[in-house]
Specification:
The protein is an alpha+beta fold. It is built from 15 helices and five strands. It catalyses: Hydrolysis of alkylated DNA, releasing 3-methyladenine, 3-methylguanine, 7-methylguanine and 7-methyladenine.
């Protein structure tokens, strides 16, 4: 038995589908995502069952299909609509941000280069959190390689043949040595599996938070209590998992490089300098960080 859902959502004027597609095109080997000029196929777990999400962009619309290798309730149609809207950043208040800061002497130039920029969000908060842990203190290319090896280690497949990004239960069940052999450090292995166990047991309710967001403070407090998770990981998870645009990404090396270029500085920008500069842009500090990423490279973004 299988279940299929189909829906169409309207897109705002000036929507940039290529930003979304570029985010999911990070892995050149297309391990769990297949990305074309105007479409995305992504393998994921839906209620712990292998599923394939397909997004096809047309003028001012996105057409979404979810094919689950199992039976799920009809009410999941609403969950699918919420997930797709979150992934595409449809509720992100980019228009208000641009109206407020388009004339800023430094940031204004970046807004002009990338009008309408939204932050692509991962399919699930768990994927965002694990991606943040994987990416701690390494390059994007190295993080993509580790992510690929994690997907291969769990080896979950949809009936279409597309591999699926694993859930908490699958990562928690992996022997630590499997992650070490995949290239994960001892510290990342410990953090990743600790998080997986907490999510699988319901102690860290990532999906429930998504249904009642904004609840940024609850997310922050519980995640910071986990060994191996610091402010950058939390702010990145809030951004990529929930679309929360006010996390200060001053700890992000690419953000500081972007500021160095923006300011024409020969020397590196410190975390404190970056934090001080970002502060007045609340409640859009993370969106400013996304503009700094986009100014450097669509890959880093």
């Amino acid at each position: 038995m299988s279940t299929a859902f189909t829906l169409t959502l309207a897109l705002p004027a000036g929507f940039r589908p290529q930003d979304i597609l570029a985010f999911h095109r990070r892995d050149p080997q297309h391990t769990a995502e297949r990305v074309g000029d105007a479409e995305l196929e992504k393998g994921l777990l839906w209620r712990a069952t292998a599923a394939r999400l397909s997004l096809r962009f047309t003028a001012q619309q996105v057409h979404a299909d979810l094919h689950v290798d199992g039976t799920v309730p009809d009410s999941d149609q609403a969950l699918l609509a919420a997930m797709v809207g979150r992934m595409l950043g449809l509720s992100q208040q980019v228009e208000a941000f641009e109206q407020r800061h388009a004339q800023h002497p430094q940031l204004g130039a970046l807004i002009t280069r990338h009008p309408g920029l939204r932050v692509p969000v991962a399919a699930t908060p768990f994927e965002a959190l694990t991606w943040a842990i994987i990416g701690q203190q390494i390059s994007v290319a190295a993080a993509v390689s580790l992510r690929r090896k994690l997907i291969l280690a769990t080896n979950l497949r949809h009936s279409s043949g597309l591999r699926c990004y694993p859930g908490a239960e699958q990562i928690a069940a992996l022997p630590p040595q499997a992650l070490r052999q995949a290239g994960f450090s001892a510290a990342k292995t410990q953090t990743l599996q600790a998080v997986a166990h907490l999510v699988a047991e319901g102690a860290v309710p990532l999906d429930a938070w998504a249904l009642r967001f904004p609840c940024e403070q609850a997310v922050r407090e519980q995640l910071l209590a986990i060994r191996g998770i610091g402010p950058w990981t939390v702010n990145y998870t809030l951004l990529r998992g929930y679309g929360w645009l006010d996390g200060s990404l001053h700890g992000d090396a690419a953000v500081r490089r972007g500021l160095q270029t923006l300011w024409g500085r020969p020397d590196k920008v410190s975390q404190q300098e970056a934090e001080n500069w970002l502060a007045p842009f609340s409640p859009w500090r993370a969106l400013v960080g996304a503009h700094l990423w986009a100014a450097q490279s669509s890959t880093a973004y």
